[in-house]
């Protein structure tokens, strides 16, 4: 198989490695606009997968340049910030090559769904929101809804945490700072009382009971994690919600930053210049949170229950991989995306645009991820026992 992997950073390299290990990759075209990051990423991939042919391409992909580059590949897997997904997935369709991405920005996914007819004409498949959340959490939720008689409530909790907590925020970057601030702003789309609601992100903080070894945790609403699922289950479920897990105290430190406007996107005057507050936040705070030696854990809990609290819980505690050096977050976002890219390359999926849960991947996807070393347990919930 020949793959194009967009982004030579954290998740992109995890995708490339998994495609070499489990995705029958013969050649990977690794694309990034940063030459130094690209060179380092290509060298790391060659070191981890010695039989893999890695072709680094330094480029800022736009329009027909992207279409020409994608041609001849079996699938494209994108680990770039979400702002590129709309344009580049259309370029992939024009090239006649199936596409998958990490997603995380539901309005962008709405746009990609509109490409479904074009994708079907070109006989390709576009799969956004393939990572951990959105992605794996939604697939597990769909499995739970299918297996729990009278399912009424879905509650998904996911978080990546440095171990131990780091710095004043108790947090280190485990994916791009742009992705983090996207989650912390905008709207959280969910079902409440069976109705579709849109609530402000970074609100409704509550304690989260996780493994004791990580100490007190909390969770709160963020954007993007539910993907399109609330629309699919409106009128069928009472509750479908997603919250992000952090160490206790993170919320109280970040909430004032949001309220003071530091994550706004509209420019403000600073002397004679116009600056975007969020870009300043990225430039100042991003390097302070970026620890190249971080050790982390990725936590997932997906509960699907009926009106009496009976149902199923899927739980994952994934840790840093000392052998490969991939963080837990890289594994849990990159490997699910690579598994879908492999299915696309084998032409196993229907043509059109689908999120992973809409594809009905279910048990097959879960088995693939367990084969890749993701530790996902199924637990029966019954308050009467």
List the helices and strands and how they pair.
Elements (H helix, E strand, L loop, with lengths): L1 E5 L3 H13 L4 E6 L2 H14 L4 E6 L4 H8 L4 E4 L6 H10 L3 E4 L4 H8 L2 H7 L2 E3 L8 H12 L5 E10 L14 H8 L2 E6 L2 E6 L5 E3 L8 E5 L7 H5 L5 E9 L2 H10 L8 E3 L2 E3 L1 H13 L6 E10 L5 E9 L8 H18 L6 E2 L8 H10 L4 E6 L4
Parallel strand pairs: 1-2, 1-4, 2-3, 4-5, 5-6, 6-17, 7-12
Antiparallel strand pairs: 7-15, 8-9, 10-11, 11-12, 13-14, 15-16, 16-18
Helix pairs in contact: 1-12, 3-4, 4-5, 7-13
Structure, briefly:
By secondary structure, the protein is of the alpha/beta class. The protein is 35% helix and 26% strand. The chain is built from 13 helices and 18 strands.
Molecular structure report:
With 385 residues, this protein is of the alpha/beta class. It folds into 2 domains: 163 residues, Rossmann fold; 203 residues, Dihydrodipicolinate Reductase, domain 2 (2-Layer Sandwich), CATH 3.30.360. Helix content is 35%, strand content 26%. The chain contains 13 helices and 18 strands. It has a 7-stranded parallel β-sheet with strand order 3-2-1-4-5-6-17, sandwiched between helices. Strand 8 and strand 9 form a beta hairpin. The longest helix has 18 residues. The radius of gyration is 20 Å and the shape is globular.
